[in-house]
Amino acid sequence: MAETEQIDSLWLGADIVTMRDGHYNLIADGALAVDQGKLIWVGPRSECPAFAAREQHQFSGGIITPGLVDCHTHLVFGGDRSQEFEQRLNGVSYAEIAAQGGGILSTVRATRAASQQELVASARWRLDRLLAEGVTTVEIKSGYGLDEASELTMLRAIRELAETVPADVQATCLAAHGFPPEFKDNPQGWIDIICQRLLPQVKAEGLADAVDAFCEHLAFSPEQVRTVFDAAKALGMPVKLHAEQLSALSGAALAASYGALSADHLEYATAADAQAMAQHGTVAVLLPGAFYLLRETQRPPVALFREHGVAMALASDANPGTSPALSLRLMLNMGCTLFGLTPEEALAGVTLWGAKALGLQHSHGSLEAGKVANFVHWPLARPAELVYWLGGELPCQVIYRGEAQ
């Protein structure tokens, strides 16, 4: 008689929304078997092997989803920009705010002035809000230091933060976020520092999992982005790109040509961009928080992405200037109401396709044997409820690497 397999835990009593292949693929009255932080069996309870589980957890109905993935954030920064938000609503223009020393440069000054410990502490408060809503994987970018030392401090803060939270934290070097004030008359000087000094040090210290840039008329040109991407690729670092947010520069197609993990924002993406992204497997990361706060009217071409089979992720874009969003679940609703996603597409966007945007689709983002045991139990009747409810923290039980949080 075969010996019963010993496992760490068995989770029963709820319907499982697996998100396999980016669809609900719901298993009624399912079972999840976990050992050493990984899922070793997922299926109907009636078909579950006779595991000998050290712990058995029984839910009273509800649904289990993969842990949520927030694949685009700027959670580490100094200061805040709430005063500017109030000024804008009182009729002060962006130009006037910038002339007063506001805008992104105010965040740069505050970030440069903050210690690594201060950056970690403030980011932890913001990240905790996301974790409370079921996020178990998050990406965090640098990009508010805009000098060599401060960018490294930001990346080290992200790595330190990763050691303190029950979540998988990916770090992205976004030194090509904008041009430092010191280099406003010498943009090539900053690009040279990024490519020749900063990225090699980031790679040597293991401080980032990917390299990002902002391709826009008010930031980096496609040619400048290409220079940064060439340097990243020479170091073996994956790339991604802020592209087509305010204008059409074919940045998304450029990113795809480098095999980019993702192109993000994409309000002005074209059919050529969508075709290139589909060809190279680049994920479209949609960011409704910035669209909403900036009161934009040009929506990302969701129909084009569907037509060409481009995977669509959703993210909070949590940042101090254009998307001070601390709820990924709110982004689910905005993705549907503002961009026209279906609830199933939206949930796929913060699970499997969010994971793919980080290069983690083989280990994260769906509930399948062999993947990490990151999942969330919600006392809800159906997955569309995650998209439906506006505001308020829905009660949930987060399981990270097989351990209840």
Automatic annotation (TrEMBL):
In its UniProt entry, the species of origin is given as Pantoea sp. BJ2
What are the binding positions for 4-imidazolone-5-propanoate in this chain?
R81, Y144, H177, Q245, T322
| Pathway this chain belongs to | Amino-acid degradation; L-histidine degradation into L-glutamate; N-formimidoyl-L-glutamate from L-histidine: step 3/3
Q: Which cofactor does it need?
A: Zn(2+); Fe(3+)
What protein name does the entry list?
Imidazolonepropionase
The UniProt family comment states: Belongs to the metallo-dependent hydrolases superfamily. HutI family.
Detail which positions bind Zn(2+): H72, H74, H242, D317
**The gene coding this protein:** hutI
**Residue ranges occupied by any Amidohydrolase-related domain in the UniProt entry:** 63-379
Q: Where does Fe(3+) bind?
A: H72, H74, H242, D317
Keywords recorded for this protein, A-Z: Cytoplasm, Histidine metabolism, Hydrolase, Iron, Metal-binding, Zinc
Q: Which Gene Ontology MF annotations are present?
A: imidazolonepropionase activity; iron ion binding; zinc ion binding
